[in-house]
Amino acid sequence: xxxxxxxxxxIAATLAAPxxxxxxxxxxxxxxxxxxxxxxHIQKPVDQSGKPKEPIPPxxxxxxxxxxxxxxxxxxxxxxxxxxxxxxEQLEWQGAESGGAKLENTTWIGGDIDRLWLRAxxxxxxxxxxxxxxxxxxxxxxxxxxxxxxGIRQDVRPGDPQTWAAVGIQGxxxxxxxxxxxxxxxxxxxxRLTLEAEYDLLLTNRLVLQPVIEADIYGKSDPARGIxxxxxxxxxxxxxxxELKRELAPYVGVTWHRSFFGTADRARADGEDAGGARxxxxxxxxx
Length: 287
Prior knowledge:
Blueprint: H1 3-27, H2 34-42, H3 61-67, H4 69-73, E1 83-95, E2 100-110, E3 114-125, E4 128-141, E5 146-157, E6 162-173, E7 177-186, E8 191-199, E9 201-202, E10 207-218, E11 230-242, E12 248-259, H5 261-269, E13 275-286
Antiparallel strand pairs: 1-2, 1-13, 2-3, 3-4, 4-5, 5-6, 6-7, 7-8, 8-10, 9-10, 10-11, 11-12, 12-13
């Protein structure tokens, strides 16, 4: 065998080795994914119809009772527990030529749905009681923020005592305005509507500015009490309080009142002012 033939055989063997290795790699089947091997362990055996041979049984009442024992027996709701709240919104002295003391109290007793509401208002001037009234109302919540109330109101001053039947709504309007609207009917078909709104503006966590406005409207004139028909009075004010504690807050403020139409005419006839401003210093507390 010649040298040239030997060289050609070596070259042919060298080229054939990579081709054979490549052929072996192509012929090898691709490895299975790990997820396939794992899923094989968690899949349940199925029959020819594709349904599991061991179907999940339906949930029974016994299963629910075992999982949620308290839910099956019911749970305690808030309105089953009675509570109370006493708020003295205004305990103040109003300084002016005819200045005097003023009290405004709201108390409720009951649960989340039904409550007994008690309101008391009194105002003095020149050393005598000028105005006083009390309410006893039963209230029922008809939405998350609103109650409907009904009951009686007793006016002690001015004039002789007078009793009214009362019905109204109260609650928290959008933007956190506290609103009360109460309609009254009394003897001799006398009617009255009182509207009140207030708002707490937090200047800091403890410093609160509270504007308030109240209006009284009467259906009939009542000369004995110096009241004319229509819009009778509007009283507004602004009070700045500092909460030493949430339930204890001294305040200072300014109030302004104005009589209108027949009520203003009767006030002038009696030598009184139809309106004016007063400085207020007081305390707001609750428990």
